[in-house]
Amino acid sequence: xxxxxxxxxxxxxxxxxxxxxxxxxGQQVMMQMLGGRVGRGDGTAEFGRAHIRPxxxxxxxxxxxxxxxxxxxxxxxxxxDHVAALAPGFAVYATSPGAPFAVxxxxxxxxxxxxxxxxxxxxxxxxxxxxxxxxxxxxxxxWTMAAYRDEAIAxxxxxxxxxxxxxxxxGGVDSSVAAVLIHEAVGEQLTCxxxxxxxxRQGEADEVVTMFRDHYNIPLIHADESELFLGELxxxxxxxxxxxxxxxxxxxxxxxxxxxxGNAAFLAQGTLYPDVIESVSFSGGPSVTIKSHHNVGGLPExxxxxxxxxxxxxxxxxVRALGRELGLPxxxxxxxxxxxxxxxxxxPGEITREKLAILRKADAVFIDQIRRHGxxxxxxxxxxxxxxxxxxxxxxxxxxxxxxxxxxAVTSVDGMTADFYPFSHEFxxxxxxxxxxxxxxxxxxxxxxxxxxxxxIEWE
Length: 460
Ligand code: XMP
Prior knowledge:
By secondary structure, this protein is α/β, with parallel strands linked by helices.
């Protein structure tokens, strides 16, 4: 915000007489543009959970807030800069210890500006705030997923015409929902390509192929390209280089199969909105590239394939709702997300076949434990990362010198923010014992208790 070329909305936004809700950076932009001031660096940065309390008069935007016993609401913060002086006409309606301007507004102009993120799961009353804003803006709030589905199908038909589409299928919820939606829109014009990059979880390739060929009857090419991917990844340990290598190879492989399908003109992908946000860096803007998600960024001109990305504006929970709307089985919709680059980003440092084999086994034990304890559906995502360190242990009479691994399990709604899952010590102890007993090559198990932010869900 304080940088000279930081992006700003056109001034007209504030002159149209329409209600405006500024969130986080949006709050700061509003203050700066409307005559207030934004400051930096005096210890007011906040990342993660915070609690706000009401201050001053009641505000229509916060109707339904602060109704619990302790007169406070949990919100999710993620800001370095902060508002230092309010713009004329604005007043403060709630504060947190780190944000004296947590909720500000000029109700006469219907300008509202909040420092926290109401859009994330960890701001539990965020939906109420949005519902209030929608009402204050004079809308009915009657958008439904059924309407979205019809609209998406119409858009796909309009974009694709009678062209052929190939769809990269990973077996995850996103690409599957995209495939079923596109199949519903254009039927046999769609061919799915499942690329096995050798970085999948245990048994995953079989599951995907069986499901799509047998259950959905959608034409599917199963491309086993593990030699190619693992060969190119040999000696690569930098996370961005891994992602970019995998992304590049994916495009090559697609190109090959697009040619096989014969005159495919479109490539469909299950890109979601968080992938777009976290991959795009507006020039000079605050949203730096966190990770290069391999399925974003467009295709090289030379491919001559156009992108079909029907989920590009949706968050994960909305994709699941769309999947239900399309009649996908509940057990499938509830599956934990799995990233496109697969186990590569759960194997910090150099990737070797030996490490991948160990990782697959450890991961399968962890997931089995979670299922046995009935915790699978409470958890957004759970996996094992194999660490690039060996540690000394003792098993039986012998010294061991094997890999350490980290268990990661988080709760989230959209993957944008996350909290570590509070397993009991008994569960963690039992899981560590099982992994060490059942997986040769691991002699130490740790549990990752980092939230997002400041961490990310994956290790790379
Ligand atoms: P991070 O690690 O960025 O992950 O907090 C957020 C969510 O996105 C998944 N993820 C990916 N999904 N391609 C994908 O399709 C990718 O390159 C990618 N990287 C991370 C991650 O598993 C989590 O659900």
